[in-house]
Structures are given as structure tokens and as C-alpha cells.
């Protein structure tokens, strides 16, 4: 690998929760090459959003080191864009104004700014809603505004935290295709957190499977399938099975015993 654009070196993160130390991430090491698409999958609470917050520079209290372009991350920067797990739009701003927030640190003229906003509204298919407010949008539309806001400054690194979680299956697939199209045009290094193994295989060059808390890397799987990927292909299917197995096989997991199931009241079993 040439010099990585992102590198996590021995990263660890502990939160103080009500006087207790909660270890969220332990010994996370990962290099990401320029232009690479990395997906991170893992169970709820394994530290995925925390990792993205550290990389974007929203939280600078951690062990180890995170480097972007060889420089230690010390705070947020225009070369990194993020789409959060929940859309976080400002209710008192229109679609265009919310997207415009992604450009606050960009040295653009007013005309360039407006053009950029218009282009990205079109990209996410919301031209008719330019002046709408978030409460006038569906959940999926609001998420598309958040995606446009994350992309509008043309970041070199895009961080996506479950960006398509609230979308219906069809829109979700359209947005996945759109994301690949955007990446084909501009070589954006992308880190995607997702619960959806299929989404990870459809999009990513590598999938990082996390262990449950404290978050550690369990396995990194290369996805060598050529694009456009066919969800129905045998190879796709096989990778999905492999990743699901990695995710579900947990040494501490105790399957319920047959006797325990038999002892439960019928109503419980029915639900
Ligand atoms: N600000 C915080 N203060 C205290 N604990 C936190 C904070 N943020 C996250 N945590 C804890 O860190 C752990 C990892 O949280 P995180 O949000 O990164 O998980 P996640 O993998 O993104 O989960 P999900 O898939 O449910 O979004 C959790 O146990 C959570 O309770
Ligand atoms: Mg999360």
C-alpha cells in the first residue's frame, strides 16, 4: 500500500459513565488507502460511531493516534465530511440552507456557493424541495439532505454512519448506486458504518468486522468482486454467508437450551 490517507494506530477510547470506566474501543489499528471504500460492520454498541467521531475530530480524547495524510487529527477539517446516523438537520433552515452549512468554511463566491448547493440538491433528487423545511420532508428525504450536506464541500474523505438506515429498500438501492457514481466521478476515500452486510459487500473494497464491546477488529475481509456487483451472484452470496458467520459467531454467545425453551409458557414461545 502507498502511504495511507487514514491510519489508526493503537487507538483506544474509554468513556466515563456515572463514575465507571466504559471501554468502548480497544487497540484499533487500520490503514486506509486513498480512494479506498471501507465498510465497518458490527453489533450495536461496538464503537462504530465512536470511531467515526474520533476520525472526524469531534472527540480528541483517546489513546493512540489517528493520522490523516500523515498528520495527527486535532479537530474537524474541510477535507473530511460526515453524514451522521441521525440526520441532524436544523428545523428552522430550509433544505438549501441546511446543505449550505456544509460550505461554511469554503472560500467560494456567493454565486459559486449557490451553484454548488443547487447541484447537490439535484444530485439527491430534491429540486422540488429546495425551500422546504425538514418537518415537510419524509425521513428518507431528510437523510438525503444530510448526505448532500456531507458531500457538498467535496471532501477527500467521506464518513457515513448508517446513512441509508431509514430509507425504504428501493430508495436505499438507488442511493447506493448514486454513492458509487459519485465515487466514480471523484475519488473520495469512504468509510461507511452499516448494519447491512449486503450493503457492505455491494459497496466496499474491504469490510471490517468488529467484535462486541470493547470494539476490536475481528476480521478484515477483502471484497474483490468487480463492479457493478450482482447481489444475486454466487460469489456475492458466499461472501454474505461468510460475513454473517463472522458477525454472529461470538464465543460468549450461549444458545438457549432445548429444555429452557420447553419450560417457557406457550405465549412466550409464540411471540
Ligand atoms: N458520549 C458518550 N458517553 C458515554 N458513553 C458513550 C458515549 N458515546 C458512546 N458511548 C458508549 O460507547 C459504546 C459504543 O457506542 P457507539 O455509539 O460508538 O456504538 P455503535 O457501534 O455506533 O452502536 P450502534 O450500532 O447502536 O449505533 C457504547 O457502549 C456507548 O454506550
Ligand atoms: Mg452508531
From TrEMBL:
Alphabetical keyword list: ATP-binding, Nucleotide-binding, Transport
SMART domains according to UniProt: AAA
PROSITE patterns: ABC_TRANSPORTER_1 (PS00211), ABC_TRANSPORTER_2 (PS50893)
Residues in ABC transporter domain copies: 6-237
Any Pfam family matching the protein: ABC_tran
GO molecular function: ATP binding; ATP hydrolysis activity
Gene3D superfamilies on file: P-loop containing nucleotide triphosphate hydrolases (3.40.50.300)
Superkingdom, natural source: Bacteria
SUPFAM superfamilies (alphabetical): P-loop containing nucleoside triphosphate hydrolases
PANTHER family reported in the protein's UniProt record: ALIPHATIC SULFONATES IMPORT ATP-BINDING PROTEIN SSUB (PTHR42788:SF13), TAURINE IMPORT ATP-BINDING PROTEIN-RELATED (PTHR42788)
Family note: Belongs to the ABC transporter superfamily.
Protein name per the record: ABC transporter ATP-binding protein
Originating species: Pseudomonas brenneri
Taxonomic classification: Bacteria, Pseudomonadati, Pseudomonadota, Gammaproteobacteria, Pseudomonadales
